[in-house]
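Subject — a protein and its fold
Fields — amino acid sequence, C-alpha cells
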Amino acid sequence: MKGKYFLAIDCGLTDTKVVLFDYSGTEIALAAEKTEVESSGDVSEIDMYGQWEKVCTAIRKLWGITGTRGDEIRGVGVTGHGAGTYPVDHNGVPVRRAITSMDNRAAEYLLDWDKLGISAYERTRHNPWAGQPIPQLLWLKENEKECYERIKWVFSAKNWITYLLTTESCAELTDASNSGCINLQSREYDPFILDTYGIADIEQALPPLRHSTDIVGCVTPQASRSTGLPEEIPVVAGLFDVVSCALGSGVYDEHCYSIIAGTWNINTAIENHLLEAGATTKCSLGADGKSYAYVESSATSAGNLEWFVRNFFKIAGVKKNSDHLYSWINEEVQRRKTDSHSPLFLPFLYASHLAMQTGACFMGLRPEHDVWDMARSLYEGVVFAHCQHLDLLRKTHLMRDSAVLSGGAARSGPWCQMFADITGLSIEVTENTQAGALGVAICTALETGVYSSLEEAVRVMVKKEKKFTPRETERKKYQERYARYLEYVNESRIGL
C-alpha cells in the first residue's frame, strides 16, 4: 500500500479540523473550519450537508498549505463529537438537521424515567442524558413522527462523514457504547435497552457495528471529486472524540488518567473491568474494543478563560494577537502567589452537575485585587472543577498516580503546574496539540499495517514533552483553598 501520511478528520462542535500526520506521529499540517452549530434555548442542530462541506473545504485547504498530493495518503480516519443524532433515509439523504449532543429538548424524558424507575443501567452502565440518541429518538418519535418513520440509519457525527466518504453504513463501538445503544457486556445492540426507553421500532435503523480500526470502505469517485482524495484510499471506522483524545495522549490502559482541559472538562480512566460507577459517570468501550473508558465531564474548563479574555481584555481594546495575549496572561498569573486571601472562582458559566443551579462568580474580591488576581483564581477554579470530577472517579476506585493533560490548558506552563499541585498527580503533556486527531491516526496506522499493535503505535507516535510534579508546600495551600471552594459549591446546592 502506497502513501507516507495519515489524514485525520476531527468533527468537533467548535471546529472541524483536518490534520496530516507522518508515520512517527509528527503533525505535518492542520486546516480548520468553524463548525456551524445553530443553538437557541434547548435546541442545538447542525446542517448535515453543511458539515460535509466543512470537511471537504478543510481537506482542500490542507492540500494548498502542504502541496501534498492525495496519493501520498495511506489511510483516512475520522473522529467526532460523541452522542447526538444524524438520521438519514433510504437514499442516504438527511431526514432533518442533525441534533447535537448539546441539545436539551429530551430532558423531560430523563425526569420521567427517573421518577418511574425506568433504567437499563445494568446493560449500558451509565444513566441516559439528553444529548444521547435514545432520548432524542423518542423526542422525534413523539414530536416529528414523519421524520422518525423515514429513518433508515441513525449515524453519529463521524459515521455520517465516513458514509459520505465510502457510502458504507456503520456504527463504531466506542461511539455506540457512549450513545447508550449497546450492552457493554455483550458489545452488541440490545433490544431490551431500546424497548425500555420506548424506541424498540428503531432497532433496524442501527447500523452494523465495527471496531475502531476496521476499514469500513474506500474513498468513492464522488468523494474523491469533493475532497481531492484519490479513489480507493481506505477509511477506518475511527473513534468517538473523548476516547480518541485519550489514545492520542498515550492513555489506553490503566496506568494514568487522561485529562482534557478545553471547552469541556473531561477526565477519563481506562479500566479492564466493568464497575458500578456513580450516577454522573459515563462508561463506553475503550479504543481496543475490550477495555472500558469511565468519563466524568462538564463544560467547566478552559472555556471559562475564553469568556474572561473576551470580556476583560478584548472588549477593553487590548491590542495583542492571541499568542502574545495568552503568553502575557501566563506570565502575570505566574507572578501571583497562592494566598489565602485571594479570590476564588466558581467556573460554572454553563450548567454542570457539579453545582446545579449555580452560575460562575468570583468570591472574596477586595479593593487590592486586580485583573491578574482574577485570572489566577480562574485558572485555579478550573482545576478545582477537574478535581471534583477526579474525586468522583476515585469513589469508583479508579485510582491513578499520574495523568496526561491535553487541550488548551496544556499549552500553559503555569496552568500545568497548578494541575499537578492541586490534584497531587504527576502531570505530563505531549508534543502534539491535536490529541483527538492523533488518536484516530493511530487507528489508521494499525489497520493499514504500519504498526502491529496498539502499544507499538502509541510508543512511536505519542511523544511526551514535559512533566510537572506536585510541590508539597503549594499543595497544602491549595488543599485549604479547595476545601473553601467546596464549601461555596455545597452552599449553592442547598440554595444559600
